[in-house]
Structure formats: structure tokens, C-alpha cells
Amino acid sequence: MKFLLKLISGMIVVVLLASAGIVAATWEPDRSVAELSERWAPPPSQFINVNGQQVHLRDEGPRQDPLPIVLLHGTSASLHTWDGWVAELSKTRRVIRFDLLGFGLTGPAADGNYQIDAYVDFVIDVMDALKVDQFVLGGNSLGGSIAWRTASAHPRRGEKLILVDSGGYPFQADSMPIAFVISQTPVLNQIMEYTLPRSAVEASVKDVYGDPSLVTAELVDRYFDLSLREGNRGALRERFAQLEYTDHSDLVRNLQQPTLVLWGSEDHLIPTSIAKRFEEDLPNGKLVMFDGLGHVPHEENPASTVAEVIRFL
Fold first, then answer.
1. Which domains does the chain have, with CATH numbers?
2. pTM for this predicted structure
3. Closest to 71 in 3D by CA, of 311, 283, 306
4. Which of 40, 103, 240, 283 is deepest in the core (most CB within 10 A)?
């Protein structure tokens, strides 16, 4: 009996030492906005004060455009995910994009509220701060959910919608990025605030690409660095804790805005069945599916996806 207790005690010690070694090897402290801005917020980036929140934003293209395009990124992404689209769209249109609460260089919400309604208010507050009354609103994943919910709550302000692999219905993921899994796992999501293996970020980004070979070291750097922005790891945990699972298809069916729905056929996070639900429920919706692309088709193949946007606009 004593031998068994010693054996168990020894195994516990080994596990604890191994865990401590892993934590030590993957220890990553928070990084300040000032530290990150040199690489990730050069011009035309700016920071504007919105209700006391310093919002990282880019506002590009002709200012005389009467109907700017506003683009919202997804979970754990940043305004940079739209670089390919903006390079083309800003030649003729004003394009506004910003880091959402809890992500990128904007960082955590002061009140810790990451409900969709809070994001809707945030979008409207940013537009009010820029004195933009009406706009075309586009979004990917979480950003898509925020986009159509904003159009639902403020129908006069959102003239058209562009939904890219958008959230909006309850779904069962075929595959979930490891960083998302960790963020929803008790204890691990607490440890994550102090550790972050770059390999986990790389695996997560590859998981949402249809062709993982397109994921470059610089792309991983961007996701990795901005995840380390002070407070973002805790904000991600809180965002997942506040997820809602209500079916709001009744709101989708009431949307009157012309809506373009873009989807990657290889999206294993939000399956293509959700794209078809949007197509069925939207009164003025059009679905375009892209063969071989994943959950972020606008990032994976900007040229082919933005071409559909230009035709739609």
C-alpha cells in the first residue's frame, strides 16, 4: 500500500513538473499597444476615442463617397484581414475598418461586455464618431453576425450587406481551431493568459484556410502578436463565455437590405449548410460559393472574392 501511494505521489510530481516545464517554455507576457503599433499600426492606421475606448481604425479611399463600405473582422482576427479587399475597393470607394472590442489593437471592452448587442452599439458609436450616417456593412464570421444584427437593429443606416462565412445560426463545427478550444476549456483558458505557443496559433490559422500552404510566417506573426496585446487573451475567454446560442432566423427573414453571402466550400468551422440557410431566409440574398476556400475566403483569395463584391456593389 505504501509503495502504491509513493508511486502515485511520484507520478503526480512528474506531471506537475512536466506541466511547469510546458508553462515555462510557452510563457508569453502581454505586449503593449505602443510595442505592437510600430509593426501593426503604421499609416494609414489611426486611433480614435469612442466613449473612452481607443479604437484602432483605418479609413481609406475617397472621402466624397456618399456610401462608405465598413468591414468587420472575425474572432481573434483584426482589421488587417481585409488588406486584399481594401487595396482594390479603396481605388474608388471609401473603406472603413477597425479592430473590434477584445481584438487587435483596440483591446478589451472597458465593461467586459462581449454580447452581440454590445458590438452593434459599438459599430454605431464608431460610425457616429466618424459622422458616417449610412453605409454598406460587411463582416466575416463574428463580424458577419455583428453586421446583419446591426442592419436589423438600424435598418436605415445599413444600405447593403456583405456576409462572409457569417455567424448567425446555431451550428456544429466540423473542426475548431485549437486556440478556440483552449479558450473554452476551464483551467486551460486561465493558463492561456500567461502562455501562448506560437505553434498553436499557426495550427489555428491553418485550420481556417482551405489551403494551409498559403499560411505564411508573416501571417502567423500577425495573429500571434495581436493575440498578445495586453488583455486580449482574457477578453477572448470572456467572449466565448458570453456566446449566445439562440436561433435568430426570424430576424434574418426580416432583413430587407440587398445581401451578398460569400462562403468557402472548405469552411469546417461554420459549415456550408449555414450558407444555404442564409440563402433561404434572406428576402434579398444571393449566395456565392468558392471552391477550395475555407473560413476566411477574403483573406485566402482576395482577388476572386472582392470581384464578386464589386459586381454586387
1. 36-312 (3.40.50.1820)
2. 0.91
3. 306
4. 103
